[in-house]
Amino acid sequence: MFGFWDCCASSCSDSVFEEFLEDPKPFSLPSPLPQWPKGKDFASGKICLGELEVVKIMDFDKIWSCTPSRGKAKGVTFYRPCEIPDGYSCLGHYCQPSNKKLRGYVLVAKAVDKENGPNRDSESEFPALKKPLNYSLIWSDDSGDDECGYIWLPNPPEGYKSMGFVVTTEPNEPEIEEVRCVRADLTEHCEVTEVTFDMKARNSKAQFYIWNTRACGRGLLGKGVPVGTFFCGKDENPEDELNIACLKNLDSSLLAMPNLEQVHAIVKEYGPTLYFHPDEVYFPSSVSWFFENGALLFKKGRDKGLEIDSAGSNLPAGGENDKEFWLDLPVDDDDDDNDSQDYVKYGKIETSELYVHVKPASGGSFTDLAMWVFCPFNGPVTFKAGAWNYACNRLGQHVGDWEHYTLRVSNFTGELWSIYFSEHSGGEWLDASELEFIEGNKAVVYSSKHGHASFPQEGCYIQGSTKLGLGVRNDCAKSKFLVDSSTKYQIVAAEYLGDEFVAEPYWLQYMREWGPTVVYDSLPELEKIIKHLPFFIRLSVETLMELFPTELYGEEGPTGPKEKDNWVGDERC
């Protein structure tokens, strides 16, 4: 859609720990983890990736903190994993902003012979793990202060890849025993994500950057397993193919993924409470309630709609969105006293439930639970320009609104790691340390008024131009209107478990549109908005239209969960 978000309330993406934390304490969830049901390797503390077995380390020894001498850049702290189990090797060091609670991990690995158990490959010509040949100094900060730092890249033997960097406080090259490199066929390419740190070196004119990394291939079919290390360099835009890599899960059995009983336990433990705004009028419902109360299936060239049975078994299944079919609200009879269209349009929150898609993430080292909510109708938007607000009559409204948020759970421990908040055509991941918890380990998700986008805190989130102070309001607040997704849910898909465990409902196979195509005459309402703008930010209609998502002015009917990119792919961020 577009990438400008502003929040009138406090933004959860900004840490409350603005000061430098000399010795940050690790974050822990509000309540201890439960005893998970038994089954395979989920929450066993280790994951087999084929020829490698990995363990997640979250205990660290501080190495060095780098704090800019000038400017607004915040410092970073580098850590070495500690308490590494016998037989496992470090693959690289960890780095995070100094103003955050300690929250991260790195993987340590050992070679495994699947038939005979642990195998260090000491006599193999091409073992899974090998020591680096030596190191290259990538960057140093030795300006004469009390604490100096040096960042080194392990130089791998031919046919091997480095997984991360090594940090020291001495100018001497690290010991080759410090880390191991991984055979190339056991790795995947990785890419950088957000910049963790950038600064101008105090003894150099060159800029220096540190990024988080992730696997290039992600989603349901992705095999890349991030190691938790960082990437650094002097180029603002590093090459797509970096000189470090992530691991690859070659074990197709995905033994660390939760079984069905464990999935239910995860939802019971972490299922958020979804709050709707106190002034909301377009509530969610179950899909079956929508069908039972008169929703109709239309086909191109056919005047009358077809009634849909409660399970959706008479909907056209499979294929792709060929624009031949769409759903719509009931058609009211002229002499019918009851307005069935409005009745369905306003939903029935008592019937609502979250529809859960369970899938592997990060090569099966995490589990994603995408929790979908259905609303029969999406209401019109409200524009904000400074202190002036304008509630539109029609712009933004459409039939059939599917929204979601996604829980990401570590398969090493079963710990809730983060939540993705889907915000219209965008969204953001928030670490568990940044969430609002309401009961035990259950977080809060706020559904915006009329639009039903997901947000992590109460407030008014503006979608548009923060520079101009102009945008669409997304108002979020607690109310008596809520859905507890830890109890009101249905698991609708978990491909890795097989059809015998989770049978997808009929309606999920409907790949066409859940609402009719709508085209609005937006000019009158846009002209009203322009008329109320301050003179110094007066815009043309064309410029104003560019600021807002195209679906405000007209929309092809929205499609269901299985047609969304994140069904097979990763969340957009």
Plain-language structure description:
- It is globular, with a radius of gyration of 26 Å.
- The strands form ten sheets. A six-stranded mixed β-sheet has the order 31-30-29-26-25-38, with helices on one face.
- The protein is mainly beta.
- The protein is built from five helices and 40 strands.
- The chain folds into two domains: 45-248, no CATH class; 260-567, no CATH class.
Describe the protein's topology.
Elements: E1 5-7, E2 46-48, E3 52-57, E4 60-66, E5 76-81, E6 89-90, E7 94-97, E8 106-113, E9 117-118, E10 129-130, E11 134-141, E12 149-155, E13 160-161, E14 166-168, E15 181-183, E16 187-200, E17 207-215, E18 224-225, E19 230-233, E20 245-248, H1 260-270, E21 273-276, H2 287-292, E22 296-299, E23 306-307, E24 325-328, H3 340-345, E25 354-361, E26 366-378, E27 382-385, E28 388-391, E29 398-410, E30 416-423, E31 426-431, E32 437-439, E33 442-447, E34 454-455, E35 459-465, E36 470-476, E37 482-484, E38 489-493, E39 518-519, H4 523-532, H5 541-547, E40 554-555
Parallel strand pairs: 21-33, 25-38
Antiparallel strand pairs: 1-35, 2-3, 3-8, 4-5, 5-7, 6-8, 8-9, 10-15, 11-12, 12-14, 13-15, 16-17, 16-20, 17-19, 18-20, 21-37, 22-23, 22-24, 25-26, 26-29, 27-28, 27-36, 29-30, 30-31, 32-33, 33-34, 35-36, 39-40
Q: Which features does this protein show?
A:
573 residues, five-stranded antiparallel beta sheet, mainly beta, 40 strands, six-stranded mixed beta sheet, single chain, 7% helix
